[in-house]
Structure prediction request, 675 residues.
Amino acid sequence: MNGGAPTTGKVDPTAAIRAIWNSNRGEVMGRVAVLEDAVLAMIEARLSPEDRSAAERDAHRLAGAAGTFGFRRASEAARELEGILAGTYPVPLDRTLVAADEVVALRRDLSRDPAPATEGVVTRPLESAPPSAAGRSAGVPRPEGLPAGPLVAIAATGRQRREQLAAAAIHCGFQSLGIGAHGWLPQEGPRPEAALIDLSGGDGGVALIARLAALDPPIPSLALTPPHAPCDRVSAARAGARGFLSIEASPEELFSAVQDLLTPTKALACTVLVLDHVTASLSSVRAALQNAGLRAVGLEDPAQFWELLEQTQPDLVILGTSLPGAGGAELCRVLRSDAQWAGLPVLLLSAYDDAPAVAALFDAGADDVVAMPFAGTYLAGRVLNRLKRTRVLRANALADRTRDAQAVDQAARPSGGLVAADFDVDVVIVEDDPLLAELLGHALTTRGYRFRLFTDGQAAAAELAGSPAALRSRVVLLDVDLPALNGFGVLRQMAMAENLAATRVIMLTAHSSETEIVSAIELGAFDHVAKPFSVPVLMQRVRRALGD
Amino acid sequence: MDNPRRILLVDDDEGIREVARTVLEMVGGYDVETAASGLEGLEKARTSPPDAIVLDVMMPGLDGPATFVLLQEQPATRGVPVIFLTAKTQAADRSRFASIGVAGMLSKPFDPMALCDQIAGILGWQS
Prediction:
């Protein structure tokens, strides 16, 4: 649960945000007026440097605030204005004209009602995409004013039991339809999307499951089983029951199971980004996903991958492995090294299905590998299950928020036996920025690793690239921009001395091109992490390189 | 969780402060303290060190990086993870921020409903 959360049931956060907007609107519009004056002064070529700086600050603050309140266009306009104001002074005519357009767009967008927060720049995590689903998965009471949830048929013996289940359904954001003790569905009215069927009443339950499963389209049912009394699970499963739950399960458990049943059809809200340069396989993958009700965005040119990734904010990515330039495996590695995308499920399409080839793809960080050619339903099934699992994991992660981060660190500490006697140190840091070096050193020491630091490439290469190496380390954290000899140079010397089999190198890159990163991986770098990185993420990668 | 985690939020924009405080309290269940300037933030952090600090980068007076440096100089606040709120236009600065040891960065504008997850994600409070 959201441990420690104050009562989330009563107030809708988006309504609260709207109220804050209303109380701040006057001040925000005041800033818009300042910008309008500045643009007017710009047009008349009388904008003073002081007014320009003041307007630039206002534009900056507007860009942040407008976007946060859901005014996306206004946020873009303010950012554009900020850029113009920060640029050449006096502002050239063409930029002035752009500014005039943008300031109009700014006021127009801010004059409408605030958009719901979902229109923000960052996509919401999967489990909170539909607000009602978030309430259900976390077992939080449904905030008022949300649309009614899916209709669930409830068949239970005993009126009290039926009423309990109906109340639980509403609590979890569903609508319920009581259908009596194993009764029939009404002929008219809305059709239930799922059914909960109590098996404790005898054979009637199994017969009802069979009837629901025989409908076109079938209504999926979950069977509720009594804890001690005997009941015929095998017949119920044969009749088409999609799952079993104890009748004593909590309302949250019951209805999160119902939610899972409904997920394949609800997964329509999920977006999958597919990158493959072979048109035929791209279109077959897209067709398979669309048939399963998913939104699929196809892309043939790897060069546009990052841009489209930002734009679509997909819930899952499918990559071909034989792309020109950077292959799917390399892209996957790069994704994994970026904190923003490290959690994104990645499925790789492989032309090979032999164990070493598949293992290499998993090693690159793939969540799943599908060998080509494949049946459409096979691929779609794997994607749907992966999306569902991600949803469950995220819900669990929310529930585990109470867990102490220190406990995680504790568990990650290496046990004594792991430190191999053949190595002089666990980690070598090659980094010329003293602050970052100190930070990394501290992070390693507190996790129980032994390390050595080099501040230039030549000194590092002299120690690490001999044959045999003078200093044997299990892992090297290698910065790219180094004095004397850069990181790629150090890596190349280590590769020539054939030291990369024993020592795993993690490149720390800041401005490197994809080609450089790929060539570093090809030279034998074990991994790469893009700067800026979060220290916990880097430590995770170090642990992996150490083979812990 | 008997003692909710305490977050100190430093931003000169009142709207941003209120929105972030609302969602961090309502959605994330955190205890939120706010400060309107780097100086006020420093003072509050020193008097009662929070579990994490969210610090706007561009503020008049003491800006985010300067405040961060001062926080690092105080024994009481040195170990507190700091998240920078940065504008997208400041992408070039991001690697510099990472190298001085901030725990993470959040782009402005942020989606209020995703803020808690992002903060928890950066701070590793989620498994």
Q: What stands out?
A: Chain B has a mean pLDDT of 84. The beta strands of chain B are 6-10, 31-35, 52-56, 82-87, 104-108.
